[in-house]
Amino acid sequence: MYPEISSMVGRGKKVGSVIEHFLRYGINENKSPLPDFDIDFYLKNYKDISDAYSAGTIKPIHHWLFIGAKENRNPNRYFNSVYYLEKNPEVVKEIIAYNMQSPFEHFLWMGRKRGLKANPSLVDLYVEEDAGKIIFARKAEVVADNIISSGGLTLNTSAEPQITFVIPVFNEINFTLQLLAELDAKVKLPYEVVVVDDASTDMTSSIEQLVSGIKVIHLEQNVGFPSACNIGWKMATAPAVAFLNNDIEIGYGAAQYALDTLHSEENVGAVGGRIIRTHGKLQEAGCIVWNDGSVLGYGRDKSPVDPEFTRRKDVDYCSACFLVVKKTVLDLLNGFDETFAPGYYEETDLCARIWENSYRVIYDPRIYIHHFEYASFSKARPPTVSAALIGKHKKEFVRKQRFFIERQEAPAIHYSFRASDRQNKNKQWILLIEDLIPIPRLGSGFGRTNQVVQSLLQLGFAVTIYIQSKRETAQKSEIMQYLYGVELIYADDNHEDDLNTFIQNRYSNFHAIWVCRTHTIAKIRLSLQNLLTKKDRPSLILDTEAIASNRGYSLSSILGSSGWSKAHFYKEVRDELAGAELFDEVILVNEAEKQLVDEVLQLKKTSVLRLSLENQVETVSSKAAWKKRAGFLFVGAVFDASTPNYDSLLWFTKSVWPLILKEIPTATLNIVGHWDSKLKKKAEDFSEQAGIIFSGAIANLNDVYSQHRVFVAPTRFSAGIPVKVQESVSHGLPAVVTPLLAQQLSWKNGEGILFDDNGGCSEFIFAAACIQLYNNFDLWRSTAEQGLAAVDRDCSPQHFRDRIVKTICR
């Protein structure tokens, strides 16, 4: 960094070493000894340091090394201490454990080796909207200047257009020319353009001298947006009319997507898309009309790529900065109501009339538009000066569309998801409360919860999931695959009572409340008691997923504990289910747990809801295909070293696996499943053992099941139902399991599974069953075939859905 000091360092020179030079001279000259420390950044971002430095009381590098790093101050613009700690909560404990001075030290020693992110990505950074508008305007200026200086623009318009673009404009020639250039570059279907000049005073008044291939109407006096649109669409010759503001950039394919959707069904009247402001945040993903006539751009200020905004739906209206309407519908309704001139509520009124005439308005997320919102920026008056006009037009809209708005939701932000899709209006809404976001890769019953959600959607219910922890996040692809169209509410980790507040505020919207897992009862017990006093309360359903006390009881037998007598076990069950009597129905996942609960407690109603599975193969493999299969497979999520899955792997790899390798030296064990990040070292320990492969989470297990020969489930303590065993058997892959899992499944020996009929959990018997099943094709085929029959019998998706309907519709 400082090549000039090389001549000063060495024997007989000014200083003997580089570090001596820094300590004697460099620190006073503000030289940095570290490539990671940016002095200019430090002074610019911390005013107190800058002020002290100016006063001569602080050296920046000295302050950061001895004080600033400990205060989580950032050494450069590429490392963000707060972000690093928030995104990687395990770091705090490791800093303490290893006596580190700062998050940055942790990053240098550990974080970068793990690939931990040190800074938010660019798309996550906040940008002021004015900055986006400045860039938008400057781009438009360059485009317009290029068109003007190069002799103009010629659009390749058609005499037989499929779509007519109607662009009402008042001044802002740069924006208009940029939009026309966008249409020329991005629209590939036959089109025409009608520009309505609403008495402009800039170069717009002679725009036809700059752009050829367009129709231009010059108005002598300013008539406002609705009237200008009406003048324009009446000149349209295409069957579809797209109303555009001139202050937009259209996304690729927008026109084609709009036409595809518009003509997809006879009753589609209008189409809009995602409107994105210049700083990259949403303006709207469709719009909501409340029952007082006020409106809301759905999703405003959120990321336009969030999964909830990538779903096509019926909406109250879409803004006319990009709104495509069938020409026949415009003829029927005579276009915009000019009562709303010069603007505000004109597209709201038009779309309301579209709905009242039995046509639909559709939001198509494939369409995206970048919009310079409130392009009147340059006219020296803020949007708030229009408040009086908005209020006046709102009153006119309410007067005119009273029948339309009386069927709308009351204005409340927590109703916005439901109100954002008009198809939700006739649906019964279900609230589901779960620990984590229910996606299959997490295991631990979350896959089964997802099956409940999918069944509810298939049955025509609408679903809200209240997620109690953000500990595990889901990728957008997972949400699109498993939770498409579901409202997701995340609890605030800093407010433990959020769930109760949520229930109290919104219970009347739900037909049923489906509570997952027994430990949730205590959190909401008072809310449930309060609900029982309500006349039109929702049904209350407890889905236990598993009776956790069973885990302790089975673990005690492994450890030989004398503390878990049957009386103690029953007390634990009663304590675990305290408050279960408040529910209209309690769901268990197997007959054994139902019998246990019925014996210990007197509840209103108990039932069994197993798993929803369809056999993924018609027949098991031929012997030739069987020979191509190889290796043992374990699938299961591990969140903590105290969990049943971790214990089972530890027992299997230490006690059973060596016995298998003696008989089958070439055998491999593939460990598949989600592991919590804090267990990375333990996962590496497993993979270092002979023949063991650690694959981690795999989104689609179909190929994994078809490639292996034997599934192993060496679970020694657990509760609930072994989902992955049933799943593997449904793919024609037989399993070796413990007697505990066989009891939970209620399957006999040979029905997809092998186990010790005597009820023991001996490593020798388990290993022998694995070896026999692996080497004996006839046994393998018989076990697999009977397993497919057991899945058909016990896991019918239709039975699963029927059971849910009976539960929900009490």
Write a structural description.
The chain is an alpha/beta fold and 810 residues long. The protein has 4 domains: 3-121, no CATH class; 131-419, Spore Coat Polysaccharide Biosynthesis Protein SpsA, Chain A (Alpha-Beta Complex), CATH 3.90.550.10; 427-608, Glycogen Phosphorylase B (Rossmann fold); 623-794, Glycogen Phosphorylase B (Rossmann fold, 3-Layer(aba) Sandwich), CATH 3.40.50.2000. It contains 32 helices and 27 strands. The strands form 5 sheets. Strands 2, 3, 5, 6, 7, 8, 9, 12, 13 and 14 form a 10-stranded mixed sheet that branches. Strands 17-16-15-18-19-20-21 form a 7-stranded parallel sheet, with helices on both faces. Helix 2 packs across helix 3 (47-54). The chain is globular and about 95 Å long. The N and C termini lie far apart (75 Å). The model has no long low-confidence stretch (mean pLDDT 92). Residues 165-282 form the Glycosyltransferase 2-like domain. It holds the Pfam family Glycos_transf_2. InterPro entries: Glyco_trans_2-like, Nucleotide-diphossugar_trans.
Task: Using the 3D structure, state the CATH architecture of the largest domain.
Answer: Alpha-Beta Complex
CATH topology of the largest domain: Spore Coat Polysaccharide Biosynthesis Protein SpsA, Chain A
What form results from the Cα inertia axes?
Answer: globular
Low-confidence residue ranges: none
Q: Measure the end-to-end span.
A: 75 Å
- Summed over residues and divided by their number, the pLDDT gives a mean of 92
Going by CATH, the homologous superfamily of the largest domain would be: Spore Coat Polysaccharide Biosynthesis Protein SpsA, Chain A
Radius of gyration, in angstroms, nearest whole number = 33 Å
Structure annotation, total helices? 32
Number of strands: 27
- Strand-residue proportion: 15-25%
Based on helices, strands and strand pairing, what is the structural class? alpha/beta
Helix content: 40-55%
Domain Glycosyltransferase 2-like: 165-282
Protein name: Glycosyltransferase 2-like domain-containing protein
